[in-house]
Every structure is written in structure tokens, then in C-alpha cells.
Amino acid sequence: MVKLDYTNFKPEQGKLLLSEPFSNDPNFKRTVVLLATHNEEGSVGFVLNRPMDLKLGQVIDEFKGCKLPVWDGGPVQRDSLFYIHTLGDAIPDSIHIIGDLYWSGNFETVKALIKGNKIEEHEIRLFVGYSGWTANQLQDEIKRNSWLVAPASVEVVFGSEREKLWKEVLKSMGKDYSIIANFPENPQMN
Questions:
Q1: Of 36, 94, 145, 159, whose Cβ has the fewest other Cβ atoms within 10 Å?
Q2: CA distance readout (Å), 97 to 66, 86, 111
Q3: pLDDT of residue 79
Q4: What global pTM score does this model have?
Q5: Cα distance between residue 93 and residue 106, in whole Å
């Protein structure tokens, strides 16, 4: 088995960002963020482990009764709905992330699929807001040890145990990171 050196991972589209264990930033404390895009202009990502106690039908009147869950994607544009999915070409203008994972796409198509009950919860994740960084901002935060970078997969993105995701991804990174996964949120409580 090849042991990966996670200290050499660079931020890029399709990677995960894990907040450092003692972050006090309420937007990112113990979060896992999927980078949907990362380029010289900046980065866009979605927090994967912050479910909201809301359903789509509660957020947008047009979807009254729809039980698809809505997630907190991050602190930017909290008045907008974003989505990642595994439907690829079934949603025109989708942007490929990695493997079978896409984001955005034609919202009229998404609406028709949702209203026709043709999208399952394991195929789409809906977010209020997103996480964003300007050019070089994310790289600077990584240099200050605010984030660890790890590989992503569809299984990690759509997995079921959201409250354990931060710890589980750290543990999957190997022995040194397993230790970090068990750090208390407040080191003074240790």
C-alpha cells in the first residue's frame, strides 16, 4: 500500500479542505469543504458537514412539500441556492469537478427533475451559500496552517455520517492525522 503525503497536496478542484482543529472561525470550525473550482481567479467550495434543519420546500415556495435537505454551503451569497450532483449530462451546463461529481448546471432542468421526482437525495446536494476565496487567499490560509488538503470522492461527498466527516477524513489520512482528529475543540478542556 502506498502511503500518501498529505502535506504535499495543493488546493485544486475536486480536493477537500479540512479546517485546522482549533479554528475559532464560526463559519469553518471543524468543517470539510469540497473545492468545486480553484484557479488563478480564486476558489469556490461547499461545506459538506453542516446540514441545516431545512427542506427545499421550506426555502423556495415553488418546491412546496419537497423534502430534499438543504445544507449550509458557506458564508458567501447566503440568499442563493447552489448544488452539486452526480447527474452529469442530464443537467446541461453542469461543471465537472471529479469523477461523477458536478456542480451547477441549468436550474430549469433541475427544477423539472425535482418536480417530477426524478432526482434522489443521493444524487444531489443543495446548499444555501458557498465558501469562496479570492486569488491567492486560499494558498495564504494554507501556508498559515488554517487548512489541510485531502483527496475527495463521490462517496465522501454524499456519505451519510456528516457529523463525523471531519474526524473520519482525518483518520483516513493516516496515523499522524488520526491524532489530530482526536484533539479536543478547546485545548484548555484537555
A1: 145
A2: 26, 10, 21
A3: 95
A4: 0.91
A5: 6
Number of structural domains, the chain? 1
Burial label for 125, CB within 10 Å (0-12, 13-18, 19+), is buried
Q: What is the pLDDT of residue 2?
A: 38
The answer to whether residue 4 scores a pLDDT higher than 50 is: no
Q: Domain containing 111 — which CATH number? A: 3.40.1740.10
Report DSSP state, residue 189.
Answer: G
Phi, psi of 58 (to 5 degrees): -85, -20
Distance CA 63, CA 96 (A): 26
Which residue range(s) make up the domain with 75? 30-176
Degrees, nearest 5: CA angle 121-103-145: 105
Beta strands in the chain (DSSP E): 15-19, 32-39, 42-47, 51-55, 69-72, 76-85, 95-98, 101-103, 124-134, 147-151
Model confidence at 188, in pLDDT bands (50, 70, 90)? low
Query: 76 in a domain, yes or no?
Result: yes
Residue type, 66: C
> Does position 36 have pLDDT exceeding 50, yes or no?
yes
Extract the C-alpha cell encoding 74: 458557506
